[in-house]
Amino acid sequence: MVKYPDNTFYEADVWPGTCAFPDFTKPETRKWWGKQMEANVEEGISGFWNDMNEPASWGQDTPDLLSFDFDGQQASHRQARNIYGMQMARATYEGARKHLGNERPFVLTRAGYCGIQRYAVVWTGDNTSSDEHFLAGVRLVNSLGLTGIAFAGYDVGGFAGECSPELFARWIAVGAMSPFFRCHSMINTRDAEPWSFGEEVLDIARNYIKLRYRLMPYLYSAFYEAAIMGMPVARSLAIYHTHDPNIYDSAFENQYLLGSDLLICPVSSQQAIAKVYLPKGTWYNLYDDKKHKGEQTIYCDTPKHRLPIWVRGGAILTMQTALPHLNNLSEADTLYVHLYKGNDDSAALLYEDDGTSYQYEKGNYCRRTWYYNAATDQLVLSASEGRFHSRFQHIRLYLHGFGQQPTVMRNGISQNLYTETYRFIEPISNFDPFYAPQDADKIEQLPYLDFAWDNHAITIGIH
Fold first, then answer.
1. Is 444 one of the catalytic residues?
2. Does domain 234-312 have CATH number 2.60.40.1180?
């Protein structure tokens, strides 16, 4: 345990009451803590939440003179503080992994240090129900991504305070487009569940939660890139547009890319019109496919049901059916691919594994790459790598920006094209009998083709 220099235990009040503090900087303590995971695992628990692990307590600062083992080097609290939370998360992860066997644990932590991404998801701590904290959380997650912590998020709706329906509608839409997504609030404050803010906000929440699930192939592949290369999931514009001075303008400081191709533009609960900067390239409005040139500022309406999202020209978005629950993943056998005509070549990774085990370390994964050649409008899907059998059996390819009747060849064979009216989000119910909202969030006559999943390379030519 953490002690004073005179060898007496340090005690302070936290959630259970008066507590002693395990010295997680000591290897033996980490092993002891890991063993405590066994009882939880036996109860069927595979997720663990490490809170107050800065370390923190109610109403007092942690004394600087406390003694820590510091892996045998002995140190005061001033030296050990920054790694204490990370070492707790490490002990939790290592213990849970040992007792879970081949199942991946989920560990959430409030505190961490360099390398915390190896052990835990990080959330940004106790925020308040305000536009300031809503947008500050967006910037914090983007900054955490730049430090290598790709799996991060915030309390949607705010931990403390009373969130308004307008703010929650904005917040949950942006939260659904962040790496770690959850609603959470403290005791004696308004509940943060989507149904706590009325039917209209529930409709909005349902739209963006479904959109997140539909984007799961795209997001899961982005997390794979984070694990392999350290690339953030929520990406600062500075990663791709480092030398564009406009992205550093405070007017656009909340914009970010989800993965490589979705430009997310958060706005406050008070904004009816958003000022958006589109970086270099071609950009499509997600909801209606209207196209804009990059390197310019535009203004767009921002009703509370619509989060401004733009898609990069050349993007290849991989999507799935909006699943009502996670248990029927095997029933969703169609991969929906959205290709956006652009002026630059691009590539998009598609990665799958079983989602729960460590068998991917033994080659039980499926990895493929989509390649788009802008000069020839040719799309190539590489052959499958790995031993995992994809749950997808069919592919539906949507063609954005290619006109309504392009000629399409698959492996040299002419393909039949179909069209449909397509929506990324559904219309909000009309709760006002005197006002009929405009149904603008749809793409008319969007062409698509269907073909079977094939583990061999596939070439699509568009003319």
1. no
2. yes
Task: Measure the CA–CA gap between 290 and 298, rounded to whole angstroms.
Answer: 12
**Whose CA is closest to 438, among 446, 428, 450?**
428
Tokens 């953490």 -> residue: 2
How many CB atoms are located within 10 Å of the residue 390 CB? 16
Q: Which of 11, 38, 71, 126 is catalytic?
A: 126
Q: Is 51 a catalytic residue?
A: yes
**Domain spans of the chain, in order of start:** 11-215, 234-312, 316-462
What CATH code would you report for 11-215? 3.20.20.80
- CATH code for the part of the protein at 316-462: 2.60.40.1180
Give the position of tokens 């803590």: 33
Q: Which of 11, 38, 54, 426 is catalytic?
A: 54
pLDDT tens-digit series, residues 364-420: 999 999 999 999 999 999 999 999 999 999 999 999 999 988 999 999 999 999 999
Same topology between domain 11-215 and domain 234-312? no
d(C-alpha 88, C-alpha 334), whole Å: 41
Name the catalytic one among 38, 51, 244, 426. Answer: 51
Burial class of residue 38 in the structure, from the number of CB atoms within 10 Å of its CB (0-12 exposed, 13-18 middle, 19+ buried) = middle
Say whether 450 is catalytic.
Answer: no
Residue 430's pLDDT is what? 81
Q: Whole-prediction pTM value?
A: 0.95
pLDDT tens by residue, 55-107? 999 989 999 999 999 999 999 999 999 999 999 999 999 999 999 999 999 99
Q: Cβ distance 110 to 121 under 8 Å?
A: no
